[in-house]
Amino acid sequence: MKTLPSESTVLRHLHGTPGFRRITLALFASGLATFTTLYCVQALLPALSTQFGLTPAASSLAVSLGTAGLAVGVIPLTALSGVVGRTSMMTASLFAAAVLGIAQAFSPTFAVLLVLRALQGLALAGLQATAMSYLAEEIDRRSLGFAMGLYIAGNGIGGMAGRLIASFVLDLSNWRWALAVVGVVALLCAVVFRVNIVPSAHFEPSPPRVRHLAGAVGRCFTDSGLVRLFACGFLLMGCFVTVYNYLGFRLLRPPFALAPVVVGLIFVVYLAGSISSTVAGRLVDVLGRPRMLPVTALITLAGIALMLPSNIVFVVIGLIVTTAGFFAAHSVASGWVGPRAATLNVQGPAVYLFCYYLGSSVGGSLGGLAYGSYGWPGVTVYVGALVLGVLILAFTLRKLPQAQPR
């Protein structure tokens, strides 16, 4: 009778192997579904503001509540994935999020929509809490940067697709149909994920021990490098979600006065994020994260500055540069957390995602106050300060001892 191969004899998947291709396709689809559903409402914020008589900051709660649900759920669902398994958790999360997305189309009030958005974010937490751990367990370290870059690229294309689909459907019908169509797209992505995902070979089940989990989370904050990476995630996402939450309001008003469908087309620049995250993943494998993170922060700052003039050409170029810089920086920072946390045996990836999506909820809402009080110049100063913080943290991270390869 054959015995199953042990942990030590089962090789991790290397770039170019069939397992690597299946895993990256599945995780690409999961990232596509996550960002399609999570951020499609950014294209609908002006319509929701008009429909329910809301200020831009109030309508942005449709984004903030979704990311808040994700932030709240990411740590406990990380622990739960240690019991039910990585692939089971990710599969259940994707299908639940798709169903909740379709249900949002039938929301009778804005309050009901917010509740469903929070539940959808909670569902997606199961995927986000597990995906980076799954990649760290199953992908060879030499290919991990590239795999992480492809996963983030799926996020980028999903963010673009969600906004484009929502914008086009909104132009033809209304926000309800837009949410319904996005929900169906997410359901198809969940099917692609389920068909292609490779079962875990290096996953070791563990019971949900609350005290142990609290200790593993608490130990994260004893490492100054991880704390700085968590802060980078918080600040980066606060910047990025603010730009995309309120840019639509800016472009719909004078001096731009663009049609909603044209504003939606501008979100094609999200492709820059998919390209930059993949390129950053490759460069990390060659140059290392300490060199890459400051460069990506500087690129993001340059994009923010370019968006300030009331000229559509500068706005589009600036948005492309900002998007590319953000996704590259997130790819570098999130990929840095895993190896460092593994060395310390702590829940680093889960805490990073908690801070990252908390940055979306808190940072995006505060960005609405900046926009409401001072317009786009206020947004520029606000998000510029956030990214400047990332740049300072990136330079200090270069001086710290780096995690050793496994």
From TrEMBL:
GO molecular function term, any single one:
transmembrane transporter activity
Respond yes or no to whether keyword Coiled coil is given for this record: no
Question: Which gene name belongs to this protein?
Answer: ynfM
Alphabetized SUPFAM superfamilies for the sequence:
MFS general substrate transporter
Q: What is this protein called?
A: Inner membrane transport protein YnfM
Q: State the coiled-coil residue ranges.
A: none
Q: Which residues form the Major facilitator superfamily (MFS) profile domain?
A: 23-401
Tell me where it mainly resides. membrane
Q: Which residues cross the membrane?
A: 23-45, 57-80, 92-112, 148-169, 175-193, 226-247, 259-280, 292-308, 314-338, 350-373, 379-397
